[in-house]
Specification:
- The complex is a heterodimer of chains A (100) and B (525).
- Chain A has 100 residues and is mainly alpha-helical.
- Helices cover 37% and strands 4% of the residues of chain A.
- In chain A, strands 1-2 form a two-stranded antiparallel sheet.
- In chain A, a hairpin with a 2-residue loop joins strand 1 (85-86) and strand 2 (89-90).
- In chain A, helix 1 (7-16) crosses helix 2.
- Chain B has 17 helices and eleven strands.
- Chain B has helices at 2-7, 10-19, 24-42, 52-64, 107-114, 157-164, 181-187, 221-231, 249-256, 280-295, 311-326, 346-357, 360-373, 379-400, 425-429, 436-441, 471-489, and strands at 45-48, 76-80, 118-123, 170-175, 190-193, 213-218, 266-270, 299-303, 405-409, 445-452, 459-465.
- The longest helix of chain B is centred in the C-terminal third of the chain and has 22 residues, at 379-400.
- Chain B is globular, with a radius of gyration of 22 Å.
- Classes of the chains: A mainly alpha (100), B alpha/beta (525).
- At the A-B interface, helix 1, helix 2 and helix 3 of A face helix 11, helix 12, helix 13, helix 14 and helix 15 of B.
């Protein structure tokens, strides 16, 4: 498997990850990720169709608890670290841009 | 007097606290003095508590009132900054969380407080625990007390350096791919990654949720066991927490120290990790420890773990994938940094904030994880990595049919120089080659000091791995080898660490070789 890490792909990944990468960062990450991806692609050498995937190291059972409220935070606690808040709510800038 | 109290192990200190010979206020003051004296150089702490003495006085009062207190009551504790605390900021080493005050305590912190431990402060770490050197901390690196020009390991370099520099007898750490064990290796200290689910992750700022485990950091095996007894056990707040009844790890360590556990103990050595893969002094120290174990009745058995070599590759797919998801919460809306973008939408603000608030390594891994999870690549990368996880578990299963524990050197090299690997992410990732398999498989691992490397005089650690849920076995075996080695050395390995320069006080001139060597950013806070 040969990776195809290009500046355009890295810029697109930045959009998906909500990180506005500078051109300098895109260039540097393109080079670094190409090297890293070439190395980690070796997982496909042994990951044959007959091997089941493991998502979790220890087998878990579903966990239930009584449907009772508890461990509540107050509104003040929830908002105490908010960059901006008003009227007991988080305040943000415009949700939609002009073209939307 | 003060200096002596910082040299005691947690077990020794707790005995003196219980007998009334020493108060918690005295012990806490001694460690605060030590932090004030040496942490300008070491930079193990991001924040030092301004009310530790108050907490200590409260413990002293309760003890004086005849209250039955836990064994570690009154003993100071350093807390890795990945664990949230209500009374101190929690940043996980990131600029994006600068000044964040949690409305609740992590379960391990709450349990430590309930047991009477005295939180001293929050320790430095690679940003969001991504790294092996603490150089990726947004607040400047921690320095290795053995050589201030070298890394203390990572991500938990602050916790390891704090105990190695006698700034705290105990610390809490977290280990996603070796972040407790590799710092222990390079600082001549002890650290254990519990079985996945053995210790609550509630309130540990998540890096990779299927790999993260919180665990103890200390100077002796018994001290780690005592702390593990406090923090371990089922927590309904963590859906991956195991509902086990755990044995006393302290009892296991005390039993292990008698050495009887070594008679007939089968110790596996991985044939796919040849000596050639390690620095010569690391291999030599490892082999010497194996010989010592053998001389005391253990049987050294060669085992095969053919898929361990794929561990690093699988890890650097699974971790970035999970991290890219976990770090989505840093959205500039609910907590953390927000960068003002005039006229910008919430999405613009988010993207600019995350670019400004995340460091280079975090961006690297978030972008890598986003790539690994994206349509068209998911099966080839993330899916394959999950299969490797199965194969590594099978390697462990097969090995543990033949041996009781597996031994490896804890890391390939001794502490490298600050800056040496910072520009080569791949080289940095390879530091974790021996520690990663345990996280992928969920099994416990301990690192204890095995000696100093001949060529550079720096500490080396030996790692033991046991089957899932057999953490007590690691305390038994670790304590047994520790007792033999300390006996052979004529005292703890840390006795050989150079004295640190004292920032103030009458003994400043008497501290041996001048420790002024600093990088350009020396002492940055």
């Amino acid at each position: 498997m040969v990776s195809e890490i290009s500046p355009d792909l890295v810029r697109h990944l930045g959009v998906l990850a909500r990180i506005q990468l500078s051109d300098e960062e895109v260039e540097r990450l393109t080079g670094e990720l190409a090297v890293i991806v070439d190395n980690i692609a070796k997982v496909s050498e042994v990951a044959t169709a007959d091997v089941p995937a493991t998502s979790h190291p220890i087998l878990l059972e579903n966990v239930y608890r009584p449907d009772e409220t508890g461990d509540m935070l107050t509104v003040a606690q929830v908002l105490q670290n908010a960059p901006d808040a008003a009227d007991d709510r988080f305040r943000v800038t415009a949700i939609l841009g002009e073209e939307q | 007097m003060s200096a002596d109290l910082t040299r005691l192990t947690a077990a020794e200190l707790s005995a003196r606290l219980a007998s009334g010979e020493v108060s918690s206020v005295e012990a806490t003051q001694a460690h605060l003095d030590r932090i004030a004296a040496v942490d300008g150089d070491v930079h193990a702490f991001l924040h030092v508590s301004d009310h530790a003495l108050e907490v200590a006085a409260g413990i002293d009062r309760r003890r004086a009132g005849g209250e039955a207190l836990g064994e570690l009551a009154g003993v100071p504790l350093a807390i890795k900054d990945v664990l949230v605390t209500t009374d101190m900021p929690s940043t996980s080493g990131s600029r994006i969380l600068e000044g964040f005050m949690s409305p609740y305590d992590a379960t391990v912190v709450a349990r430590s407080r309930a047991a009477g431990l005295v939180p001293l402060g929050k320790t430095n770490m690679d940003e969001f625990a991504m790294g092996s050197s603490t150089e990726h901390s947004a607040y400047g690196p921690t320095r290795n007390p053995w050589d201030l020009d070298r890394i203390p390991g990572g991500s938990g370099g602050g916790s390891a350096a704090a105990v190695a520099a006698f700034e705290a007898p105990l610390a809490l750490g977290s280990d996603t791919g070796g972040s407790i064990r590799q710092p222990a290796h390079v600082t001549g200290t002890v650290g254990l990654k519990p079985t996945y689910g053995g210790v609550s992750r509630f309130g540990a700022i998540a890096l990779a949720s299927s790999l993260d485990q919180v665990g103890p950091v200390s100077r002796t095996v018994l001290d780690s066991a005592l702390l593990h007894d406090v923090i371990g056990g089922h927590d309904p707040h963590d859906s991956t927490s195991l509902r086990e009844t755990w044995p006393s790890f302290a009892a296991a360590a005390r039993e292990g120290a008698t050495g009887q556990v070594l008679a007939g103990l089968r110790v596996g050595v991985v044939s796919e990790l040849p000596d050639s893969g390690f620095q010569a002094g690391v291999s030599a120290s490892f082999r010497a420890s194996l010989a010592l174990l053998e001389a005391h009745g253990a049987e050294i058995v060669e085992i095969s773990a053919p898929h361990f070599e794929y561990g690093v590759a699988a890890y650097y797919l699974i971790l970035p994938a999970e991290a890219s998801s976990n770090l989505a919460k840093f959205d500039s809306v609910r907590f953390g940094m927000r960068v003002d973008v005039p006229g910008g939408t919430v999405e613009d603000v988010m993207a600019v904030t995350r670019d400004a608030g995340f460091g280079d390594e975090v961006k690297r891994r978030v972008i890598l994880g986003t790539y690994a999870l994206s349509a068209g690549y998911y099966d080839a990368y993330y899916g394959s990595a999950q299969k490797v996880r199965t194969l590594i578990q099978r390697d462990f299963d097969a090995a543990f049919e033949r041996v009781d524990v597996i031994a490896t050197p804890s890391a390939p090299t001794t502490a490298f120089r600050l800056g040496e690997k910072i520009d080569d992410p791949l080289q940095m990732y390879l530091n974790d080659v021996t520690t990663i398999p345990a996280n992928l498989a969920g099994v416990p691992g301990i690192s204890i000091p095995s000696g100093l490397a001949e060529e550079d005089g720096l500490p080396v650690g030996i790692q033991f791995l046991a089957p899932a849920r057999e953490d007590a076995r690691l305390y038994r075996v670790g304590a047994a080898l520790e007792a033999l080695l300390v006996d052979e050395w004529g005292g703890p390995l840390l006795d050989r660490a150079p004295s640190l320069r004292q920032a103030q006080g009458p003994d400043r001139q008497a501290q041996g070789p001048d420790r002024q060597a600093q990088g350009p950013d020396g002492g940055a806070r």
